[in-house]
């Protein structure tokens, strides 16, 4: 079960925090990318999005930490379910954060041309998109992400709630530009003799998402073709 709960929203350095936590021994660390890779994870989070009872130990079985969405949207529930876990709130300038989400994440939920056709063969990607819509776009942002002022207000209110409700001794408010020192001090571990990881800048993130969808489409197409050929031979 979880030792670290990442309460920071996507595009606040959550990919870098995931890499850092895993380097420090707090891995595996859950992240939205787990849902891309695992139909089972998508199914578990689809059930969470539907609002029924949740067994968090099942959702996070095998994970020591979580960052990014969808977990960050449920930081209260996770903090209550795991009262000994530490909470890390990654933060970023609100305007820059909004621009990053608008340019890098929101398009994939709106049929971005680079990702067209991505659901043709793999049903779990369809389920993933629906789950993200329920939790993030219709849930966290109440269907109003395209209204910049309202989206930023939701982001700031989220951060303020974490600061207000989590015991200060249990909470680290963290900017990844600060590097290893505050993170390692908070966790009580030695600082590694290597640079702090910085992952998923905007250009790299867009390329990664497009490449991953292309890979999944190709895999699904190959599987579907093979199944069709096998059927034709019968």
Architecture overview:
The termini are far apart. The protein is of the alpha/beta class and 234 residues long. Helix 3 (39-49) packs parallel to helix 7 and helix 6 packs across helix 8. Residues 112-116 and 221-234 have low confidence and may be disordered. Strands 2-3-1-4-5 form a five-stranded parallel β-sheet, sandwiched between helices. The protein has helices at residues 14-23, 33-37, 39-49, 56-59, 75-81, 94-104, 123-140, 148-165, 180-187, 202-233, and strands at residues 4-6, 29-30, 65-66, 86-90, 171-174. InterPro entries: P-loop_NTPase, Sulfotransfer_4. Pfam families: Sulfotransfer_4 (PF17784). This is Sulfotransferase family protein.
In N-to-C order, the SSE pattern is: EHEHHHEHEHHHEHH
End-to-end CA span: 47 Å
Spatial sequence of strands, sheet with the most strands: 2-3-1-4-5
Q: Look at the structure and give the CATH class.
A: Alpha Beta
The number of helical segments is 10
Tell me what the CATH architecture is. Answer: 3-Layer(aba) Sandwich
Rg is 19 Å
At CATH level 3, the topology is Rossmann fold
The SS-based structural class is: alpha/beta
Shape: globular
Tally of structural domains: 1
- What percent of residues are in strands? 5-15%
Main β-sheet: number of strands, strand sense, barrel status? 5 strands, parallel
How much helix is in the residues? 40-55%
The average pLDDT is 85
Low-confidence segments, given as residue ranges, are 112-116, 221-234
Q: What's the β-strand tally?
A: 5
Q: In CATH, what is the homologous superfamily?
A: P-loop containing nucleotide triphosphate hydrolases
């Amino acid at each position: 079960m979880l030792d670290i709960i990442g309460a920071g929203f996507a595009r606040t350095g959550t990919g870098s925090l995931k890499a850092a936590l895993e380097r420090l021994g707090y891995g595996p660390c859950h992240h939205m990318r787990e849902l891309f890779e695992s139909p089972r994870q998508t199914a578990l989070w689809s059930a969470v999005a539907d609002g029924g009872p949740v067994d968090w130990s099942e959702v996070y079985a095998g994970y020591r930490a979580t960052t990014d969405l969808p977990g960050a949207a449920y930081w209260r529930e996770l903090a209550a379910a795991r009262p000994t876990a530490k909470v890390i709130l990654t933060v970023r300038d609100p305007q820059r954060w909004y621009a990053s989400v608008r340019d890098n994440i929101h398009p994939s939920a709106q049929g971005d041309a680079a990702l067209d056709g991505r659901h043709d063969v793999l049903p779990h990607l369809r389920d993933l998109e629906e789950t993200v819509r329920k939790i993030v776009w219709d849930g966290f942002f109440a269907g109003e992400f395209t209204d910049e002022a309202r989206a930023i207000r939701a982001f700031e209110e989220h951060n303020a709630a974490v600061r207000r409700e989590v015991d200060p001794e249990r909470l680290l408010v963290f900017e990844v530009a600060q590097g290893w020192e505050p993170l390692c001090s908070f966790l009580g571990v030695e600082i590694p003799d290597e640079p702090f990881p910085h992952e998923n800048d905007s250009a790299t993130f867009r390329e990664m998402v497009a490449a991953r969808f292309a890979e999944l489409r190709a895999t699904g197409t190959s599987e579907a073709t093979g199944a069709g050929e096998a059927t034709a031979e019968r």
